[in-house]
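thread from #wetlab-drylab

HS: before we spend reagent money on co-crystallization trials with 6-O-phosphono-beta-D-glucopyranose, can we at least see a predicted complex? here's what I'd submit
DV: go for it
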Amino acid sequence: LYHLFVDGHLPKGATVLGVSRTKMSDDDYRNYLRDFAKEIGKPYDEKQWAEFAPLVHYHADDATNVESMPGLNARLKKLADAHQTGSNRLFYLSVAPHLYEPIINNLGAGDMVTEGKAWCSTDRDHPTWQRIIVEKPFGSDPETAAHLNRVIGRVFEEESIYRIDHYLGKETVQNLLVFRFANTIFEPIWNREYIDHIQVTATEAVGVEARGSYYDSPSGGAMRDMIQSHLLQVMAVVAMEPPITMAANDMRVERNKILAATRAPTADEVPRMAVKGQYGPGQIGGKSIIGYRESEGVHPESQTDTYAAMQLNVDTWRWGGVPFYLRSGKAMTRKLTQIVVNFKPTPHLLFAEKRGEGGARQCNQLVINVQPDEGIRIRFSGKVPGLGTTIKPVVMDFDYVEQFHAEPPEAYATLLLDAMRGDQTLYKYREEIENCWRIVQPVLDYWDENPQSDLPNYAAGTWGPSSSDIMLAQHGARWHDPRQMPRGKR
Ligand code: BG6
């Protein structure tokens, strides 16, 4: 919100009310937030902060207690009168998962959601709105997610519900839509005729650090934390059909069709279609990292997956027979979110090529760096200058910062502004979430029923367990090694 303010995007009169149980004054809260503003993204500017801080207020109460609602409502009305903002309200819940239900019920029971109902507004000419942003984790299995959807649906209309997934707000994920649908040259080859397989990777170079007790809970683990949410959404954007328009519903329908068409593995298939990993001690960037099981709040014999990989099949006309490989892990070699589209080899081999590792043919590859080093790279074969015909892979490079001379905006800034404007395009629709749970649940069930004796099975600072390489090798594929395609010079 501070970044939006600095860039002049925060709507006039917008105010923020932080609600929590801890007793604090408005000023205590502002000072507490200032430390974050200093740390994140843009350079901190004392003058800008001094203008932003008075927009922020604080209210100490327990929102799970329905009796706290009249006080909260009165405080919101007072702020709205002071800033002349009427009753447009955006509730944002970033709370422990078990608190969603009581808080949402209380917002309803406490008359906090009187408008925002598209079809029965009390002021048809100037309808006001009350919207809600719900953070992940959105449920911890298909049943709890469906239940939460019903709980929210009893209080807010679908048009007012914003299920956030910050990966959809990342600039490069949005750029993927432009790349695919604003150009003629890529879409004709974006299918099973030309694509061999697609990889989506999201790795982090940190362990669980202070989040051990959350991560080791039933809501934690890489499959739930990353694959069920962020990676499946990214996959849907890669695979979706062109929408009729860029309007929220048209986009969400197309993303959901891909998720609906994604086959969940059967219990028999899980061992060869999914991989679970957990990191042991190791070194990342010269720094020693303790093993996951030694982290605070983690059970010493924990079975939690700090790494998960999965092979998926999307049963559509376009994607029949094209595997999608998703992987995510903590405490790995480096932080990287990347989509790699691997094309099929040429039908006829005319030239002697330089082979890659293990003698593999180096086919065309399109690499989309979601973060860091945002950009797109294409690998193709080129002739080495000189006599004779020696073929070598070369890289064509689009670097976001170099081209646009700007750093991409924070995903959260983009998404919060969208919610204020009423644009749900980058937010998840009810069915998308339920489909994502349907896809991963058989793996989670299998892992619950079959504890693994080989954990931890990768050292911190590596690319994960060897079983993950074996999963791809079954299909003659291998995980993309980012060192093979270094960035161009900036
Ligand atoms: C969150 C996960 O949703 O995404 C975290 O809960 C993870 O475990 C984070 O660290 C990664 O986000 P980003 O934007 O840093 O890739």
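DV: The first strand starts at residue 16 and ends at 20.
HS: ok that's useful, forwarding to the group
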